[in-house]
Structure formats: structure tokens, C-alpha cells
Amino acid sequence: MLKRIAVLISGGGTNLQAVIDACESKRVPGQVVGVISNKADAYGLKRADNHLISSHVISRSNYPDKKERTKALIKSLESMKPDLIVLAGFLEILQPEFIRAFSDKIINIHPSLIPKYAGKGYYGMKVHEAVIKAGEAFSGATVHFVDEHVDTGQIIIQESLRVASDETPESLQKRVLNIEHKILIESINKCLRSEV
What we know:
The protein has two domains: 1-103, 3-Layer(aba) Sandwich (Rossmann fold), CATH 3.40.50; 109-196, 3-Layer(aba) Sandwich (Rossmann fold). It contains six helices and seven strands; from the N terminus they run βαβαβαβαβαββα. It has helices at residues 14-24, 43-50, 66-80, 96-101, 124-133, 169-192; strands at residues 3-9, 30-37, 55-57, 84-87, 106-110, 138-145, 155-162. Strand 1, helix 1 (14-24) and strand 2 form a beta-alpha-beta unit. The chain is globular, with a radius of gyration of 16 Å. 37% of the residues are buried.
């Protein structure tokens, strides 16, 4: 019996694509049963459509009230009956009632070596810019469980790379993204097989 995976996105959806590909090639014992985006123009929604995966937009534009938006998110996900919820570049801080509704079922991918460059304000290119500005020798990515705080949940897998002397935020983002795709799949497997 395949496990049910729901994915939350905000942008291009390359991590979503990595999860879909891993499911379709049987490298993950699951299937993506639904995608939710908080941006109506997220390219990840097109990726879901390309694979006939149900998708929904729950954003500030159609749910301006945060409490109503959280209720809509919970209701939408409950209808999907997910075994695991994957935040794959989802750029919105989830409310405590959402976390409680799906306790120990939510994981997030973050483009740094948590606890460095994590928490409020650290997302996307901002992380890579901060790493280079600080002259860090290493960076990487982390997959962790989501708790009621930002980027503080139990780490599942973390992998690092050496920052090149001529690194730019753009080149670092590309290199870290390769790690993200790899460790996200490894983490999903660990979660679905109850190894964490």
C-alpha cells in the first residue's frame, strides 16, 4: 500500500518535482496525492497538473484572514488523508493549530545547515547571500520535522558542501538545491518507513 504524501509549495517546485519523480520511479514507497500553494502563479502548480495531481491555492488573496487561511489549509489536507506533509519551499509560517492538527507528520527542507541561517527572515536567496557575506567555509541543506517554532524541529538529515572561493549566491543556490533534492527523498523514505 503506497503512503500518501501532500506537498506545500510557493514557487517553482523543483523539490516537488524531485518527490514526484522519486514516487513514479518507485524510489519512494508513496504517491503525491495533492499539492497546495500559497501563490496562484507558482510554477509548481503546473508541475502538479502535468502529473494529474490535484492542486489547490490557499493564499492571502483568497483567504486574507490568517485564521480562515489556516482552517482552509487544515480542511484541504484532511481531505487528502496524508501520511506525510512535505513543505517544499513553502514560504509561510504555519500556525500552531496547523502543527497540532498534523503532529509529527510535517517535514521541511531548508537551504542551510540548521541552526545556522535559519528562523524568521532566512529563506531562499537570502540564506545564500548571508552565508557568502559571512565568509562561511561550508553550507548545505537540512530536512527537519516542523514544530511550533521556525526551523527548530528535530533534524532528520543534513548534508554540507564546501563554499568555493569564487561562489556567488546564485551558484551556491544551484549547488545546495542538488543536495536538497537528494536529502529530501532520503528523509521522506526514512519517515515513511518509520526510521526516525
